[in-house]
Amino acid sequence: MGLSTAYHLSSARSSPSPSITVIEKDPSYQYASSTLSAGGIRQQFSLKENIEMSLYGRDFLREAETLLNVNVSFEEKGYLFLACSKEGKKKMIKNWELQRTYTQDIKLLDKKELKKKFEWLNVEDVLMGSYGERGEGWFDPWALLKGFRDKSTEMGVKFVHGEVVAAKRNARGEVSSVDVKVGEKIVTYFPQSVVNAAGPYADNLMNILAGSEKPLQHPIPVRPRKRCIYFIHSPSSSSPSAAPLTVDPTNVYFRSEGGSNHFICGAPPSDEINWDYDTHTLQNPSPCFESTIWPQLYHRVPSFDELKVKSSWCGLYEYNIIDQNGIIGFHPEMENVIMLNGFSGHGLQQSPAVGRACMELLDKGGFETLDLGRLDFERFLNGNLMFEDGIV
After folding, report:
1. What is the tens place of the pLDDT at every residue in 216-248?
2. Cα→Cα distances 115→128, 138, 277, Å
3. Domain residue limits, the chain
4. 330 phi and psi, to 5 degrees?
5. What is the pTM for the complete model shown?
6. CATH class of the domain comprising 77-134+223-320
7. Residues 353, 52 contacting (CB under 8 angstroms)
8. Residue 283 pLDDT more than 60?
9. What is the SS3 assignment for 107?
10. Closest CA to 9 of 367, 362, 375
11. How far apart are CA 319 and CA 340, in angstroms?
């Protein structure tokens, strides 16, 4: 989110932009949610804002080599959602009716059509599938981050390896100064605007920006959620040779990775598990593969009767605990602080559109390309919550 904002701001300005400063606690991005993600992108959402943002993300990825001078390895191999209940089928049809007003690449498949197209799939309990034939798939998150950063640097954006440790606010509640620890020194900045792109640590940053003298009456509802990804191998010759990112109704998912019967798989975070999110335990995936993920994979793909985990890793969702949707806009108590937070697992794919939206808020005074006003913070105060069916 931060790198996309820096890129879109500097691209929109006619001259180099040394006034744009990005504070990075971990410039290696070793623990960044983006680089530890599955790198998926889809348009199969239930809210128009999410569809529109991911469509821009799709187009941006297709043009990334021209825009960023980097190959992001965009594999348009599809997403496949499955419905096994009447309620799930009804919801899938409703979502598809919205999706088709924006793209014709999403197709609904009945049981026979699913079996014909995906012979390896167990469809005995499936009522319907929703398949993105084009524009959906996965890409290299590291390449996108590097492209954003390199291009922003080229256009004059300043990057600082440091950590925000304190801030002061003026009488209007705006952030007037920010203290950043750079090495052993404290460097003070006097920003016109601040963008919170701290991902799962958004709440920590908001509290620092608010200061101890004026704690926020309405804190940002974003918390870390640990989620694990497994790189697996299936020795069966009948395993899928090219599987789209397939999402079971249980939200266990898998997709092909690198050919030769290799796949990645996982499941979304669960509220029932005490997710420990410090950087040490991020290296230790939870034991849910054998107890939760593998049984469901075997049920859905019988040739997955023998699987070997080759490697695994963990990352963090910036989880919006209220309605699991992104927050885009100024905080009502700190009116020069923009929040780009809480995307609950679909932030990476929407980061191009969100960076552009943030640029419009800062430089143009409002949204111009996409109207994302319903995703502002005010929805938590007035009760107009934005629930998304397609959280994986």
Report:
1. 999 999 999 888 899 999 999 999 989 999 999
2. 11, 23, 40
3. 2-35+142-219+324-382, 77-134+223-320
4. -80, 150
5. 0.94
6. alpha beta
7. yes
8. no
9. strand
10. 362
11. 12
**Tokens, residue 209:** 């920006």
Pinpoint the alpha helices (H) of 63-182.
64-68, 86-99, 111-117, 141-154
Q: Token digits for 44?
A: 């199969």
| Contact (Cβ atoms closer than 8 angstroms) between residue 108 and residue 221 | no
Centre a 10 Å sphere on the Cβ of residue 207 and count the other Cβ atoms it contains: 15
CA 305 to the chain's CA centroid: 31
**Region of poorest pLDDT, from 97-101, 277-281, 294-298, 338-342:** 277-281
DSSP 305: G
Q: DSSP H helical segments within 265-329, as ranges?
A: 288, 294-300
pLDDT single digits (tens) 336-374: 999 999 999 999 999 999 999 999 999 999 999 999 999
Q: Which amino acid is at 199?
A: G
Based on C-alpha coordinates, what's the Rg of the chain?
Answer: 21
| DSSP string over 151-192 | HHHHTT-EEEE-EEEEEEE-TTS-EEEEEEEETTEEEEE--S
Query: What is the separation of C-alpha 15 from the centre of its chain, rounded to a whole number of angstroms?
Result: 30
**What CATH architecture applies to the domain 2-35+142-219+324-382?**
3-Layer(bba) Sandwich (3.50)
Question: Do residues 239 and 262 touch, judged by C-beta distance below 8 A?
Answer: no
List the strands of the sheet with 327-331, edge to edge: 194-196, 334-341, 327-331
Question: Which residue type does 292 have?
Answer: T
At 361 the three-state DSSP class reads helix
Distance between alpha carbon 186 and the CA centroid of its chain, in Å? 32
pLDDT band for position 212 (cuts 50, 70, 90): confident
| Greatest Cα pair distance in the chain | 69
Helix crossing, 48-62 with 347-363: angle to 10°?
Answer: 100
Distance separating alpha carbons of residues 119 and 301, to the nearest angstrom: 10
How many C-beta neighbours within 10 Å does residue 60 have? Answer: 22
Contact 155, 11 (CB under 8 A): yes
Task: Please name the amino acid found at residue 241.
Answer: S
